[in-house]
Every structure is written in C-alpha cells, then in structure tokens.
Sequence to fold (86 residues):
Amino acid sequence: MLSEPFMALSIVLAGSLHGAGDTKGTMWIIVIAMWFIILPLAYIFSLMMHYGATGVWVAMVVSMVVQGILITWRFHNGTWKTLKVE
Fold:
C-alpha cells in the first residue's frame, strides 16, 4: 500500500518520458532500482536478517519508492525536452 503512489508515478512518468524519446534515462533508473536496490536489499532482509518473504516485500517497497523519486526527478529535471529522436 505504501509503494502504490510511487509505482503509479513511476509508470506514468516513465511512459511520458518514453513517449518524448527519453528511453535510456528511464531504462537506467529502472536498472538501478532492480539490480542495485531491490536485489541486495531482498538478499539482506530475507536471508541475512531472517525476515523471509516479508524482507523481500520490504525491499520491493523501498525499490519502488526510490524508483518513483528518481523518475520524478528525471521528469522535473527537463533534459528530456531537448532530446532529438532520430
């Protein structure tokens, strides 16, 4: 429930950025959120801290919050407005 607004924001703004031609920027944000946030946190919370499936869900919430914040920052940054689609 906590991550739903961030997930919705991420999906909507990522779609907007993709439509504007900024595919690499959003791709890197999603890669960072998946590989550098959710996977290490899921491993730490579930196996090292022995939270099990609850730890994986907590890692997913943290990842979605970070992804939503980063994509919002990317959208408000405005560099996508000057990209040329070839």
About this structure: Residues 10 and 68 are 5 Å apart (CA to CA). Residues 17-75 form one domain. The mean pLDDT is 92. The radius of gyration is 15 Å.
